[in-house]
Amino acid sequence: MTEEKIELFRERVQPQLRDYLKAAHIELDEDEFLTTCPICGDTAGIMKDDTWLCMHCNRRGDLLDYVLCGHPNMKTREAVRHIQRTLGEKILELDAVNANDLMEMDFQPTGWLIEKMLGKGVYILAGASKIGKSWLVLWLADRVSKGEKVWDFQTSPCEVLYVSLEDTEQRIQQRLGEVTGGEADKIWIATEAELLGKGFEQQIIRGVLKDEMKLLDYDTGGGEFLLTLRHPYENTAATEGYPPNVKLCEERLLPLGIDLRECKDAGRIPFADESFDIIINRHGDFFPSEIRRLLKPGGLFITQQVGADNDRELVEMVLPGAGKPFPHEVLQEQRTRFLDAGFEILQAEEAFGPICFYDVGAFVWFARIIEWEFPGFSVDRCLDRLLQLQETVEREGKIVGTTHRYLIVARKPRQPDIDLPKQ
User: Fold this and answer.
1) Where are the beta strands (DSSP E) in 196-256?
2) CA-CA distance, 93 to 95, in Å (whole number)?
């Protein structure tokens, strides 16, 4: 698919942003003016020109940008086909690639769940009835959850969700005893679920958060994301340190019964030891030792952060040589911090996605509001380079940069580590 065809497609489907959101079962308010930002998960507004604008990270784009930002590993032509299928369009063109071009493409290595046997993705296990398919899958779940070999193949240990819609809990209980030997604390069982594309994804996201759990959102901002979780207010707490946001939270969260406390120091959060089952944090500071103090044994810390390489191409376009404001916000370094604090790492991933500007004025506004990434930026100081960017817009239609995000899900051990010094 040529760049020209992609741009024509972009223009054609831009007015169908709302149709796509509804077809993809992405949250959309009753008036169809608010949705979810594909980058940070916060509230995004739908503008008169059918673009979306995030109220938290200030990202803006059209329908194609929405899909690419939400699927950072997806190629543009793949995003086009995804949109077409979601909207129910008939695809008339065959996507063929030249063999020489294919051999020159760079692909990420396969992420193996079971080495050289089962990678990340969707698989169908088919066979005659009553030959042991469900037994096999339950056995695989047990091996992966314990990090034990499957025959001679290594596994990547992780927690496993086993969804069996034709079984009962009693029947699975009997099988678990035989398959696992009585130890199965990293396997989760479900016998009922919504259909894929009809709510199943949301069930998985919220699956770890049970009503009786105590939840803390540290650096909640205005509480927008926290409220989308719909967690029982009596079991919900939040902190915020930015005065305008504190005032907003006092008006929005306190009347609901949410325990809100003002806090500007991530190393001294004003709650008692082992108060929470889950702590979430998006784009806020954190200290693993303090998180460990606050979590109950077995509790989870889930954080999504802006990485050190965020928007670096954009910064270089106007301020070449400017240093990174947060050079230590690197997945491997932060992962090590949690390991050193005695956590188990359940998930550690990072993503790089596109960020596009279709006029220089929008770029200037963006650079002014996140001054920590663009130190000393001004129109007068950077005028010559802004004129070059204008030429880029006129020639290519947009200015393109790269966002950097990373995700860590860490768990405090259920049993204390006697070798770990107290912090």
Assistant:
1) 215-218, 236-240
2) 6
